[in-house]
Amino acid sequence: TYTPSPSQPAAQNQKTSSFHSAQSVTDMSEEWKAMPAYSGSYLRNRGIKAETVELFDVRQDSMSNACFKHYNLKNSEVIGWEVKNAAYTGFNRGGSRGLGVQVVGNSRDLPTIIIVTETAIDSMSYYQLHKKPKDNQKFVYISTGGALTLVQQETLVKLMQQYPSAQLILAQDADEAGEKMAQRLAIHAPRQPVRD
Question: What is the pTM of this model?
Fold first, then answer.
C-alpha cells in the first residue's frame, strides 16, 4: 500500500485526500464526521451495492475517494481511514492505521462470527456474497487496511480471547501475503478458524 509521505509528493495520476490535517484523535473523529457519505461511482463499478456502502458508513473526501474508517479499539475513536479509488490505494495523511470495524446484526449480543479481511472493500464484498446474521447473531467485519502490523495482530488476538466462542473467518487474498496473515492469526485462535 502506497501512502505519500510529506517529503514525497503523490504521483500526478493519484488522487490524495485533503482531509489530513488532524492534530489529535478528537480532531480526526471530527474530520471523519464532517465528511459526506460516499456518492461516487468507483464502488458501484466494483459491484458494491448502495445499501452496503451505507451500512459500512463509507465517506467521501474532497477528491471523491472512497474512505473507510479505522478505529482504536481501546476507546472506539476514529484514528484514520483507508482511501481508495480506481487510481489510488492508501491511507489518509495524519491518520493512524487501526482496524476497520463494522458490526452487522444485533449489537447487544456477543459476536457470533468475526471476519478478518485485508481491506474494507474485501469486507463489503464478503458481506454481499455470504449469509447475513439472524436476529440473535452479530457479525463483526474487520479490515486491516493492508499487511497485518504487530499492533493489529495484538489487538486481534485480544479480541479473539475476549470472544472465544465466536467463529473466526480468515478471508484474506489467496496469495503469499494473504496466507502469511492468515497463518499469523490462526495460531492464536481459541478454536479452529475457517479459511475462506
Answer: 0.83
